[in-house]
Amino acid sequence: MCRSIAQPKLGWDSPRERRPVPRILLPLKPLYEREEFLDHEPDHGDLLMKTKIAVCLLWLGGSLAAAQNPTESTRRDESLLIALENAWNQAQLHHDSKALDELLADAFISTDNDGTLTTKAQFLADNSDLSYAPSLMTNTDQKVFMYGNAAVVVGIYHAKGLSKNKPFDHHGRFTDTWVYTNGKWVCVATHTSALKK
C-alpha cells in the first residue's frame, strides 16, 4: 500500500519562488553633500538644541571632574579614620578595652590570619589578657576608601612583644570596615593576613 505525499504549496519559503529584492541606492552621499542640506540655514530651534547639548556636556564634564576630587569633608573623614586606626593600636598597647569598646560596633567581627572568627566580646576579653604584652603596634601604607557612610581602611601592621612570655614579631595586612552611625565612626569588621618576612 502506498501513501500519498502532499505537495507543498508554493509560497515565500519555496526555493522555486523569487522574493522581491529591495532597491538600494548606492552610493549614498553624506548628509553634508546632499542638495537639500546645501543651502539650508539652521533655524533657531537647531541652534538652541545645540546650545543645550553643549551646556549639558560641560556640566557633565564638570561633575565628573568634581567627583574625582575628594571634598573637604571626605578628606576630614579619611584623616579621622586613620586617627581611629592609631587609637586602636594605642588601646591594644595599653590594654584599654574601654577605649577599644568605643571604636567597635556591637556586631563587630574579627577574622584572624588563621581563620579564627572573634566577636566583639571575645576581642575585648583578649585585649584585657595581660599575658599578651605588645611593645610595638604600628600601621603603615594605610589607604582609606570612602563609600558614603561606610569606609574601608587597608594597610600593613607590625606588632611586636611577648605572648605568654614568648616573643613575637608579626607583620601583616589588615582590612577594616567602618560605618558612620549614631554620629560616629565604628568598626564593624576587621581581617588580617600574615605577610612573609
Key structural traits:
six-stranded mixed sheet; 5 helices; alpha+beta; 197 residues; Nuclear Transport Factor 2, Chain: A; 6 strands; 34% helix
Give a structural overview.
The protein has a domain at 72-194: Nuclear Transport Factor 2, Chain: A. The protein contains five helices and six strands, in the order ααααββαββββ. It has helices at 35-38, 44-68, 72-93, 97-103, 120-128, and strands spanning 104-111, 117-119, 132-147, 150-163, 166-181, 184-194. It has a six-stranded mixed beta sheet with strand order 2-1-6-5-4-3. A hairpin with a 5-residue loop joins β1 and β2 (117-119). Residues 1-8 have low confidence and may be disordered.
> How much strand?
25-35%
CATH architecture level-2 label of the domain at 72-194: Roll
Separation of termini? 90 Å
| Portion of residues within helices | 25-40%
Assembly type of the chains comes to: single chain
Kindly report the average pLDDT value: 80
What's the number of helices?
A: 5
Provide a quick synopsis of the model.
By secondary structure, the protein is an alpha+beta fold. It contains 5 helices and 6 strands.
List the helices and strands and how they pair.
Elements: H1 35-38, H2 44-68, H3 72-93, H4 97-103, E1 104-111, E2 117-119, H5 120-128, E3 132-147, E4 150-163, E5 166-181, E6 184-194
Parallel strand pairs: 1-6
Antiparallel strand pairs: 1-2, 3-4, 4-5, 5-6
Helix pairs in contact: 3-4
